[in-house]
Design goal:
By secondary structure, the chain is α+β, with helices and mostly antiparallel strands. It has helices spanning 8-11, 14-21, 104-113, 115-144; strands at residues 25-29, 34-36, 44-50, 53-57, 65-70, 75-76, 90-93, 97-103. It comes from Streptomyces thermoviolaceus subsp. thermoviolaceus. Residues 8-77 form the Cyclic nucleotide-binding domain.
């Protein structure tokens, strides 16, 4: 169920990457740790170094549906970038995870101060959002539609 989203290396120039990474601090999460829940305030994001994180979507009357698994190099969290800064999905560490963590307010401020950096980050985050939307659609069709998505992407 892991899909490939645009990596930081592919999305940002070396200068913009260095600028963003200067704001990172390393964190670790045990398997089973809930990183965030839908509807809560999105005040940070991560780039996964090791481990796997499951993204899930609340489905009324059912267990949350895992729609995608993220791993090395993936951006975890995009809701921090768009008002009202509330998580659109939930996330849980499926295995022990090590990641670079970023404070959303600090990164948004830097984006406002440097329009070229801000545009590069916005394009990267937008590409990730588009990919996640597609993954959610395919997964929900596979789970709940009578004939699945027809995508051939067995999850």
């Amino acid at each position: 169920m892991t899909t490939s989203s645009p990596t930081l290396t592919a999305a940002l120039s070396p200068q913009h990457r260095a600028r963003l990474m200067s704001l990172a601090h390393d964190v670790a999460f045990e398997a089973g740790t809930r990183l965030f829940d839908e509807g809560r305030h999105a005040d940070r994001f991560w780039i996964i170094k090791t481990g796997t994180v499951a993204l899930d979507l609340h489905v009324p009357g059912r267990r949350a549906a895992v729609i995608e698994c993220l791993g090395h190099g993936d951006l975890l969290g995009w809701s921090w970038h768009f008002p009202p800064h509330l998580w659109h999905l939930g996330a849980e560490a499926a295995s022990p995870v090590r990641a670079h963590e970023f404070d959303a307010v600090t990164v948004r401020t830097l984006c406002d101060e440097d329009p070229l950096f801000g545009r590069a980050v916005a394009v990267w985050v937008g590409q990730v959002v588009a990919q996640r939307l597609h993954a959610a659609r395919v997964r929900l069709l596979d789970l709940y539609a009578p004939y699945g998505s027809g995508s051939g992407e067995g999850l």
